[in-house]
Amino acid sequence: MKVNLPEAVLFLHAFPLNKDMYSFQLTALEEEGIPYVALDYPGFGKEPPLRGDLSIETLTDFIIYKINSFGVKKVVPVGDSMGGYIIFDMFRRYRELLKGMVFVSTRAEAESEEGKRARYELIRKVEEEGKDFLVEVMLENQTSPATKSDTGKMCRLRAMMEAASEEGIVKTLRAIAERKDSTELLKEVDIPTLVIAGKDDEKVTPPQVVKRIAEGIKNARYHELEGAAHLPPFEAPEEFNRVLLNFLKDL
């Protein structure tokens, strides 16, 4: 059933989580009366896997289909990590739908050869051993010391990761490994853009990597959040919401 929203904020989650990582933002937007759409990717959360191989482009098309089914005409996507890869593809192929963009803990570059080898090694290991080891690796690599000391948050993150299917994990790792380079797109961006990094993100997307996106986009805003690593919306929600809401209100 279509709701025919003229505009909405679109939340695109990190790997291997789901839309629940944005629960703090959904509450804040509801309080402000700002419409939003939050989706799980195929194979994550409550969304069943798709048949066949996945690519970033396939995921983008899946999301566009969902947006259209809701009757949404314009979106401001907020993408953490692989959510940022999807935003770049949206700008590349569906830029008429975009009113603004929010990149979080992500990068414009394609995967390096070393990174590809690491992704495919993870795929092999998940296929042979299951996903439990991956959950432990991601919990360690994606969180700040402050988050690690918060038992409640760590339990919630674990539950989100454990909700991912092994099929979804394998297909999505392959899509991430084979993503296109988006660095040349940066100079084409002509819509308001916000870029956010976690100050403690040392292992996945360090702030200096994330900042390159803001440096390549004219008039982009850039913020580094204390107490957050790879998942700032979940790890530092109060400060993240303040920065996000200021950006949205200016739009």
Approximately how much beta-strand content do the residues carry? 5-15%
Number of helices: 11
Give the tally of β-strands.
6
Query: What's the rounded overall pLDDT mean?
Result: 97
CATH architecture: 3-Layer(aba) Sandwich
Number of domains: 1
CATH C-level class is Alpha Beta
- Low-confidence segments, ≥5 residues, pLDDT <50? none
- Taking all Cα atoms into account, the compactness measure Rg is 17 Å
Task: Describe what this molecule looks like in 3D.
There is one protein chain. The chain has one domain: Rossmann fold (3-Layer(aba) Sandwich), CATH 3.40.50.1820. It is 49% helix and 12% strand. It contains eleven helices and six strands. The chain has a six-stranded parallel beta sheet with strand order 2-1-3-4-5-6, sandwiched between helices. Helix 5 crosses helix 7. The protein starts with 6 loop residues before the first strand and ends with a helix. The model has no long low-confidence stretch (mean pLDDT 97).
Topology:
Layout: E1 7-12, H1 23-32, E2 36-38, H2 56-70, E3 74-80, H3 82-94, E4 101-104, H4 113-129, H5 132-142, H6 145-148, H7 151-162, H8 166-177, E5 193-198, H9 207-216, E6 221-225, H10 232-235, H11 237-250
Parallel strand pairs: 1-2, 1-3, 3-4, 4-5, 5-6
